[in-house]
Amino acid sequence: MKYDLLRAQREFLEIPHDFSLDVAVYQGGYGSGKTFSGSLLGILLCIKFPGIRGLVGAQTYTLVRDTTLQSYFEHFENIGFQEGEDYNWSSSLQKITFKNGSEILFRHFDEPNKLKSLNLGFVEIEEMSEVPYETFKVLLSRMRQRVKPKWKNFTYRIFGHTNPEFNRGWIYETFVENHPENYRLITAPTTENRFLPQGYCDELKKLYDEKYYNIFVLAQNGESSSNLVVKDFTDKNVREIKYQPELDLHITCDFNVDPMCWIFAHKTDEKVFYFDEIAMENTTTAKACEEFLRRYPAHKGNVIVNGDASGDNRSCTSEYTNYVIIKKKLLEYGYDAEIRIKPFNPPIKNRIAAFNAKVRNANGDIGIFVDKKCEKLLYNIYNLKYKEGTSRIDIPSYQQIKQTKELKFLSHPMDAASYLVDYYWPIKL
User: Fold this and answer.
1) Contact call for residues 156 and 121 (beta carbons, < 8 A)
2) What pLDDT score was predicted for residue 210?
């Protein structure tokens, strides 16, 4: 089996220095071959250095299992490795063992203290920007497996792959601003992948907002001063939106109890118009229905319900799901509501990306309009931020909410609004 590697992939695999430790990050856009390169390097190290012990991980094990581990199995299939002959996989131990004695452990990094007993020859980190810097430092300290005499020209290696960060965090500081000589950042724009379908990047430009396109296609770092979750929202996105009784009325829901937030909208094939909202404290789904019916008792068009996929699960306090409650309650008023939700919620960053792409895409087209009646949604758009130096949304703590009650309305209206956008215009990775 021969691989025709991209420029960035070859640069990632090869070491350009003579230090005993190499630390490299493959920072690329969608479809730039990040996970492919990391898993290939892990296999090559296991073959070249018999008996080496490697660790492959991410902040959550779901990401390790569904992304990185599958990439290893795909490489095994491509190069003709057979389970039971060339390697063994133990699901109970979460470990691949090669016939030459090399092994790879697959773990999550949510509890970094549990990693302190390991002595390793290499570490691979999936979605490195989501891993805290303190965890990275723990992994550095585990590069201490005893070097075997037959390992010629051996170098300890920590390598990660990630999308660029929205906000310049520890990866930018460590690998760009103040990096040691043995730290390497390899940048891989999606546009450099010659194996992608023709026109792939042009289609992404239509889907994404400009900042998102620059980061997740051109692999450019975000700006340290730009930590608002919603990008490029201007006065042009705010307009008076008249409720139209004859049009389809979309209710998009977040089912948090305190507050429960529903946003009402009309939409076309390319645009969404948020014209009203409910943001109720200490309430129930049934009471939120009653408030909707009080405001819109005689709607003539269809009523379509979008929202949180987890609302389709029964709770310990009710035999009905939230969506069954809505459908039954609205049916009492003659509304045969249609439920349109995904089978499961996508990652938050996908929903946010979809919302930003509709606010304004890379071509400058505006697809989201908000009426001033949607006070809580606008409050989120103007105030919801990422944690400084990370790509994680800064959700107010209980203590912060006790001091400033308005903070309880951060995130939930934005969740409700973005569920609708993600359902109809999802980001295609």
Assistant:
1) yes
2) 80
291, 280 contact by CB (below 8 A): yes
Residue 169's pLDDT is 76
Strand, helix or coil for residue 95: strand
Residues in the chain with pLDDT values less than 50: 224-225, 316
For residues 256 and 286, the answer to whether their CB atoms sit within 8 Å is no
Look up tokens 């350009």; give the residue.
Answer: 16
Query: How many other C-beta atoms can be found within 10 angstroms of the C-beta atom of residue 198?
Result: 6
Say which amino acid occupies 297.
P
The reported pLDDT for the residue numbered 226 is: 61
Give the integer Cα–Cα distance in Å for 315 and 321. 7
- Residue 282 falls in which region: left (phi positive, over 0), alpha (psi -120 to 50) or beta: left
CA distance 277 to 298: 17
Query: Would you call the peptide bond into 259 cis, given omega within 30 degrees of 0 as the criterion?
Result: yes
Which are the contacts of 10, defined by CB distance < 8 A and separation ≥ 6? none
Give all strands (DSSP E) within 237-382, no chain letters. Answer: 249-254, 260-267, 272-280, 303-307, 338-339, 368-370
Among the listed residues 294, 243, 246, 284, the one whose alpha carbon sits nearest the alpha carbon of residue 264:
243
Q: Any bridge partners for residue 279, and if so which?
A: 261
Neighbour count for residue 90 (Cβ, 10 Å): 10
Q: How many Cβ atoms from other residues are within 10 Å of residue 197's Cβ?
A: 8
Q: What six digits make up the tokens of 294?
A: 């009080």
Q: Are strands 21-28 and 53-58 parallel, antiparallel or unpaired?
A: unpaired
Q: How far apart are CA 17 and CA 31, in angstroms?
A: 28
How far is 407 from 383, CA to CA, in rounded Å?
A: 10
CB within 8 Å of 179: residues ≥ 6 apart: 185
Q: Specify the residue for token string 């070859």.
A: 10
Which tokens belong to 111?
């509890």
- Judge whether 103 and 96 are in contact, CB under 8 Å: yes
List the strands of the sheet with 272-280, edge to edge. 338-339, 303-307, 249-254, 260-267, 272-280, 368-370
Helix (H) / strand (E) containing 402: helix 398-403
| pLDDT tens, residue by residue, 132-170 | 888 999 999 999 999 999 999 999 999 999 988 766 778
Q: Map out the domains of the chain with their CATH numbers.
A: 7-216 (3.40.50.300), 235-424 (3.30.420.280)
